[in-house]
Structures
1.
Amino acid sequence: MESNAVLLESKSSPINLLNEMHQLRLLGHLCDVTVSVEYQGVRAEFVAHKAVLAATSKFFKEVFLNEKGMDGPRTNVFLNEVQVADFASFLEFVYTAKVEVEEDRVQRMLEIAEKLKCLDLSETCFQLKKQMLESVLLELQNFSESQNSEEESATQPSILLESKAAAVAEADQADCPLDPPDSPVDRLSNGMSPEMPATKSKEKM
């Protein structure tokens, strides 16, 4: 009787693998490539593992797959127009899947990701730039709303004064009405004297 197949999957294995490869690189163990970086006279060399660089960068993958002969026990790759600090951050990212950089370096990290054809780093930089842009837009929106609320609060006192003045004027008119309908003036306008009874007016007619 056949038993059902079960899946053995480790959630921590990829992280442990990356951590172990990172430690091997830092210690210089089993490294088979040296990357020489030079920018405006500043030069530095970094040792790494071909397999890691090839798996994370199409640029390095093409270089390693197309190399005809090895220069010895370790392959040498030369990179121009790449800043030392940026390549160090790139290496840390491909070995740990994370790196901390200053905000003004995010664009440079995006450029090196595109130069070395590292899709993971490109997507990470794009997402971070999008978040930064959204936060700036949100701050501008909040600032604009606060300005509008200040302007509204500044105009409210004058509106209140105008409404109070209108209310006072209405109250004055209510307290001092025009002549009442049965006033002596109305009766005079009807041709009747207040002292003249209705019967006398009939006799005259």
Note: The mean pLDDT is 81.
2.
Amino acid sequence: PVPCPPGSPAPRLPMALRICTLVCRSWGDRPQLCQVACAVGRAESPVRHGAALPQGLDSSLQQWGVVAPSQRQALARRLREATEATMAALLATEAELSPQQRGGTRAHTDILGVDFLLACVDEALELVALDTNSQRCLETCVLAEAMGRDVGEPRGDLPRLLAEAMLHRAQCHLVEGKDI
């Protein structure tokens, strides 16, 4: 974080940045990052889902003092790669499981949430994966998308990407075992 301006009466509290990402299975079973939402909180008590209003990655990084656009873009690229690699690892693991172990013949993961914490390690910003989930990240990312539209931001790709993932799954189910 950026130090407080000289003469500031209030000390700046150590802050933590939780980054919630949502990734979905796209055509060809490739992971695709759909949405990123961040929450800022105090470092000694990491922010939980629903405990803070979500905001965008770029503005969150600017609050943290990452002012160079190239640094923010590099961090966003690393976040995309880490999120999609997590989903790819899950898809590879699922492919090795039997249908019973997966939960049924058609059971597989289409949407995954991956939470990260942005930490300062040896004076460098590092992404630390916290957990994977689906429902909490989906709720947070949908809220961030809706809040953005309410303040005049253009409509994002989240609704389209989620609809594509669900329609692809439904289409595969409908034509499974049929001759076309």
Note: The domain at 14-175 is CATH 3.30.470 (D-amino Acid Aminotransferase; Chain A, domain 1).
3.
Amino acid sequence: PTLLFEKIGKRGNNGRRFYACSACRDRKDCSFFQWEDDKVSEATMLAREAEMQSKRPRFTEQEYYNRFLKFSSLPHNEKKFCENCQILLLPAEHSAHSAHRTTGVTAAQLRRPSTLLRPLENKKCNAQYLFTDRSAHFLLDTLAGLGYRKVLCVGTPR
């Protein structure tokens, strides 16, 4: 997704409008840039599509869900998480990740996946806040005490 911006000259005269990434404002993080009035060539479209393909998750949402169901039914000693790839491993994948850092997974970690997953680090694109258990309990108790039943937390995976 992009936003339409306008670049204004130093004296405030005639600006030129352009599209840039709506999430990352630093071109080092997302290089998308397109003048509003420029025509996009076929080669540019193909290059953008190839870049988007390279950034897509390796599985669809449904495939991740099916993997989770299979993983959940595994015996405890076969439940492994690859910290390098940030993925739950099915038994057939263990050998392919043998050179990676893997850990066993508990039922408590499956209920709270943010304890397994590595937080995103780029504050300019992936701002997030991971509450400690103490902070989370304080917020939950306070909100429940005030009578709130539903809360939307943006940028707070835990």
Note: DSSP finds four helices and six strands in the chain.
4.
Amino acid sequence: VLAELIEKFVSHLSESKTDCYFSTGSYKAMDADVKKENLSSVQQLGVEMTVRYGKYLNLLKEDAENGLCFVLKNCEEFLKQQQRTVVSSLCCLQEHYAGYDWFASSIFLIMSGDRERTLIFLQQFSCLLASAFLWLPRLHLSMHLPVTTVEYGIHPVYFCSAHHVEMLLKAELPLVCSAFQMSGFTPSQICLQWITQCFWNYMDWSEICHYIAICIFLGPDYQIYICISLFRHLQQDILKHTEA
């Protein structure tokens, strides 16, 4: 039901010029084109974890690994069309996105391992503003960002979403904010970790689905409110750890 709902919603928005924030270009997924591409060791490990988790949730069948590899390779090729060339020694500014694509993997699980359905959804979703904040590889070396922003290697999720979380935290949860200041650690670092991993290993699968759906339906600013609500939920634990 969730898969159909987000598919119809995103399909409807992607057909509206006023809702399309990014251009998508044209891309046709082909088995032959991506067979020669190899996934990095980080991506291979991520694929193993995703398939294991998907089977645990009874969402994936035996041949799911090939399907997920197909999705990840095609996503990389598709997003490459909208990247600019940057010469830098920073690991995060190399041709390939340095981490694992947790968002694409989450959509693959929501679509029950249907690779074509997943790719069509991701291509349509990539033109919406929410994709910039939910799908981190979406803006890797992106031509949609100013050159200076790309060269710094800092993702907009960090200086937009995570920054606003810190601003709201001061007003909404001053004790939590003080606890972080005393620890010498920033809430934005935690938020970036949560968002990058699409809350995997932090929330249950149903809650991860709710997070993705809420941000798609109501807008990417709900990413900020969800982080704030998590800090509120964890407030007592955070304060207990601070005292200890």
Note: The chain has two domains: 1-143, 156-243.
